[in-house]
Amino acid sequence: MKRYFTLIGIAFHVSFYVHSQQVDCTNIGFETGGTLGWVLTNGSLNSSTQKVNFINEITGTVNNRHYITQLSDGADPKVTAEKIPMVAPGSTHSIRIGNTVQGGTFDRIKTSFVVSPERPIFQYQFAVVLQNDSRHEDYQKAGFNILISDSNGQPLTCNAFSAQLQKGGIIEGFKKQGDIEYRNWSTGAIDLRNYIGRTINVEVTAHGCTEMRHYGYAYFDAQCLKAEIKPTSLCPDAEGYMTVKAPEGFGNYTWQDGQTQSTVRIKANLGDVYSVKISPLDKLNESCQFQLDYQVKFYQADTTINLTLCEGESYRVDNTVYNTTGNYVNTIRRANVCDSTIRLNLKIIPIARHSQSFTICEGQTIRVGDSTYIKTGTYLNSIRRASGCDSIITTTLLVEKMQPIVPQPQTVVQGDSILLETSIEPSGHFTTQWSPATGLSCPTCTTTWAHPSSSTTYTILFKNESQICQQTQKVVVSVLPCNVYIPDVFSPNNDQKNDVFFVYGNTCVKIIKEMVIYNRWGETVFKAENFPFSDASYGWNGQYLGKILEGVYAYKILVEFRNGETNMYRGAVALIP
Ligand SMILES: [Ca+2]
Predict the structure, then answer these.
(1) Residue 129 Cα, ligand 1 centroid: separation in angstroms?
(2) Which pLDDT tens digit goes with each residue over 529-539?
(3) Where along the chain do the CATH 2.60.120.260 domains lie?
């Protein structure tokens, strides 16, 4: 052995320590990602004595036959009928031991540790993949075993698990996929409470067939557990029950009341002892069971809760509701098992209340938080403050109305005045300002006379009493030029239509100074002076010397305008009886 050690040890050696030992189980499950605390060995096989002989064992590892697995490795690639994770459930690293390619070799890991009173349960997990064949004898086939012994090399009770392929049938607890027999992750454990302070040895071996072709390998993990049943809470619930948990991952649990889960609900009577019998693996005999006890103890808890709430919120301790600032002490007693004192330091942040008033003119809006208001009313808004508590804003909104009514576009004859009337609804106190003010009788009245010399657009600014409502409107006044109209035909036949020849004029005309009409012989047939215009009673009815004669008559008409100017119109009118 020493010979090989010298020869090839340098290339493949991982550890030179034959007696490697775990320090308080720290890396017994490879959780550091390495093999610290374990000795790795390998060797070859023969079956010369009609059993598997492990020969030429050397320290070290070859060809990845001791492989630390990690979660990202996924599942075993050979077994596809179900997933065998390469890391044990609940762990982050495990080890794969053995040759995944061929037989003729074995691989082994060994460690020892001192049983601590804190963690006296040695729990191990393993999954096995073995390749079978139809020709080999049983003692030539692949296998796997775990051995646990004391410091003198004496096997412990329930010390072992071993699996050896055989001809015909499959290993109990294994499944078959083609020529593979495999066992998914299984949990074993050994109760070492009788060995506290003593050294325990663990040895795990995986091997292929003793010939060359058939591989055998296994995944392995381990941990040292507390031998305890843990309550999930220290006080019973309101019904007087509590939930307790035994270590998880074992084959069977049998509680004294018949429950079979690892976690059970029990009645909490002070001093009562609850026991569970735990079987590490389904197939191990009853002597491998171990028992854990839990005694219901008195527990005194003292909890301080510092809490800040908003006004309107509350906090409940047991059956009491608190909603005002203060320091409260509440003691809960449960089934004589638990005395829980809860000190509640409660601060209530009052709601901030804020009021505001606005007056707007109809058509405007007010925004408060996410709300928009357009009508008179009182509104409440809750707005979240930085403290996390609301503030409540009361908004009183008054909406004033002002609807001016102004005249349509107006016309006025040059020299005339026109009355411009506006009104405002609803009625009330308003101011009115016209501009330009020139030619207006009252530029600040709702109604004014206008005497524009030319066409004018008046801008009117309306304001209500509060001046919240302000609005401008426009009125257009077009100034028409001065005009006289003299017909060129009339028909004095007494049909009440166009019976009289007279002068029409608009309001810029003051008077007709003179109208003279002549017949074709130059005789004056009609003459009048200083009479009103646009008035048929001052016109010519077509008669001359008691007769009405058809014909064309010349006229001259002198018109005086309001601005004092005069104009002479000459022309002819046809008389058609
Ligand atoms: Ca592990």
Answers:
(1) 19
(2) 999 999 999 99
(3) 11-225
